[in-house]
Amino acid sequence: MNGNWRVYLTIALLLGALISGWSVWRNHAALTEQADTGGRSDFVLHDYEIIALDKDGKEAFTLLGPLLRETPGKKTMEMQAPLFLIPDPKGLHWTVQSRRGWVSEDREHIRLTGNVRAIGPRNVPQPAKIATQQLNVYPKTKRAAAPGAVTITQPGSILRGHGLVVNLANKQYELKSQVRARYVRSPR
After folding, report:
1. Which residue, of 126, 127, 141, 172, is most buried by count of CB atoms within 10 Å of its CB?
2. Integer Rg of the chain from CA
3. pLDDT in tens, 51-88
């Protein structure tokens, strides 16, 4: 009887190992399935700088920020405090920044939200400035739109309105409603 307890103990340990192994395998499959349906980003960038080139190999824009990540379970991207540097035809850079940013799966829609500020080239004595809470940019069609309140400050004037549509290709913009203009004397 003294030797039998070892056999029973061995069988009990073997059964325990089989049950715990099966349990781990089963839970791993469930965790893998959860991750595939939206648990983790495919990539996360911290303190990044991305220089995007156009079809001719020239700078289209530079993007900097503290965090860029793919949205878990989707192919969209989320950004914290993005800063875009966009060159004009003379090679001078506009800066566009906001608290948050989102990029669609097809990369044809960029939504900037929270204290959005666009400032014309800083090399100009009085750069144009645009301020709003949301700016939607459509790079492929070279258009941008702001659905809410917008303030545009230019040398000599301040324009306020609700709703903005911008054609980035020809630099034309239209304020949709509630437009008010104030003319300001330029400093000498």
Report:
1. 127
2. 28
3. 888 788 888 788 899 999 988 778 888 999 999 888 87
